[in-house]
Structure formats: C-alpha cells, structure tokens
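Hi everyone, sorry if this is the wrong subforum. Our group has a chain we'd like a structural model of before ordering constructs, and none of us has done structure prediction before. Sequence below.
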Amino acid sequence: MPLQTLKFGDHVLSQHYSAKGLAVGDGGKSVVYFDAGTVSVDPPSIAATSKGTVTVTIPRAATGDLVFLTPPDTLEAGLVFVGAAVTSANTVTIALYNTTAAAIDGIARTWSYLLLRVA
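Answer:
Right subforum, don't worry. Here is the predicted structure as tokens:
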C-alpha cells in the first residue's frame, strides 16, 4: 500500500491507503469521505450554569458521520465547547456549557471542522 499524505490546513496526516480508501485502525473500516473547512457559529443566549445548543449547516454531512470542531481561542470566557454531532443531513448540532453565574450570549465566530465518513 502506498503511503499517502493528507493535509488539513496546517496539519499533515500520513496513512496507508487500502483499496477502499484511508484505512482506520485494524477493524477493516475505511474513510470513504472527508471534508475540512470552516463554519460560522453564533451561540444563543445560554443561562448561567446551563447547557445550550446551536445548529450549523455543513454541506454533505450525513447522520453517522464523525465531526470534529475546533472553537476559536476568542470564545467568550465561561463558554465551554462540550461536543458536536451530525443530527440530520447537512446539520451539525453543537453543545456549549456556560460555567458562569450569569447568562452569556455569544457572538458569531468562525470555527474549523473536520468531517469523516467511515464504512
């Protein structure tokens, strides 16, 4: 199998390709689709010590895909990124937690994402 180098922004990933695509672990699964990019995330007002969610559109995202998001380092103090999931076609739901004693209404910022489909 040839060694292939993939680039995601400034990050480089080198892996061996199988006949079906980029092999993942020893489980016989392969990455059959991947995408990397940015998306605007505008958190709603989140009450003190509460979790809130926001949905964003990532084209070609499908239920079951793995999505990895990186919030900007300028995220409001007290807001913590909890996780994200593809909840329907082209839709990713992001969970945030407000650790402070007051509501926080975040502003729209650009986040980076990596989307993987494994089969």
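For your construct planning: The longest strand covers residues 29-41. DSSP finds no helices and eleven strands in the chain.
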